[in-house]
Design brief:
single chain; 264 residues; mainly beta; 17 strands
């Protein structure tokens, strides 16, 4: 797999780039500017371990090949650690994932580099509503790996906010067929500011739909299921509990499983 990392400015000029087979590093010795984009190019579909900033955890994710463009949050980093993408020294890397990294059971819904325009790097989260269109309440926050949920707003308290819309729905797409066996939800728990959902429904790409009974808690709520092969999962029909607050929200969704059947 040939891998390329580029830094491209708002005018389309390539400011830095590195290319190699199987593993590539790029050290960029400039401050990011408004409009800068990090581009990842992969010559073929497959699993990669990606690290776009030292302040964000590396993650094993799936690329469909082609180009993934990540808009650098140079001036507005509210959804990211304050030290991320700052300063004038940055180390970026990507490598083909090892079999042990992609074959084991893991949270398949983790991607801290997801964003609205992502069409090639999976998982990808999307929603039919986000509170006021603000980054602090975007769908991507539900799969970024940040689970602190006793407050709300900017990092590390980002969440998916539904703008008080009872028809809100969140979809996590995996970009390929995966095998899932458990769903975990972390409700935002900034009580009494927050309300909570007493029930939610989950639909799978295989046509199944089932309900989840939820509790008023900030702890993980785990729902083991028998193994299913799916390409996406949708959380919807969120039933708010009787609570004076109008603000239920989701801090994190985890979808546990594997990419291949288990063979002892």
């Amino acid at each position: 797999m040939e891998l390329t990392i580029k830094i491209i400015n708002a005018q389309g000029s390539v400011l830095a780039h590195a290319r190699a087979c199987e593993e590539v590093f790029l050290v960029y010795r400039q401050e990011y500017a408004a409009g800068d984009i990090i581009e990842l190019e992969a010559s073929e579909p497959g699993f990669v371990e990606l690290a776009l900033d030292a302040a964000l955890q590396p993650v094993t994710i799936y690329t469909t090949g082609g180009t993934f463009a990540f808009p650098v949050p140079a001036a507005k980093r509210e959804s990211y650690p304050p030290q991320s993408f700052s300063g004038n020294l940055h180390r970026l890397s990507v490598r083909r994932a090892l079999p042990v990294e992609m074959d084991g059971r893991r949270n398949l819904a983790l991607n801290p580099f997801d964003h609205h325009g992502n069409e090639t790097l999976f998982p990808h989260a999307s929603a039919n509503v986000e509170t006021r269109g603000e980054a602090a309440f975007a769908a991507r926050n539900a799969i970024d790996g940040e689970k602190a949920n006793d407050n709300h707003g900017f990092w590390p308290y980002t969440s998916w906010g539904i703008n008080k819309d009872p028809a809100a729905a969140l979809t996590v797409s995996f970009g390929r067929e995966v095998i899932i066996d458990e769903i975990r939800l972390y409700l935002r728990a900034d009580f009494p500011h927050d309300a909570w959902w007493q029930k939610a429904f989950v639909s799978l790409s295989n046509g199944e739909t089932f309900s989840l009974d939820l509790r008023k808690t900030g702890s993980a709520q785990a729902f083991p299921i028998s193994e299913r092969k799916i390409e996406w999962i949708r959380l919807h029909d969120l039933e708010k509990a009787e609570d004076p607050s109008p603000f239920p929200a989701l801090t994190q969704i985890e979808v546990w499983g594997r990419d291949r059947p288990f063979t002892p």
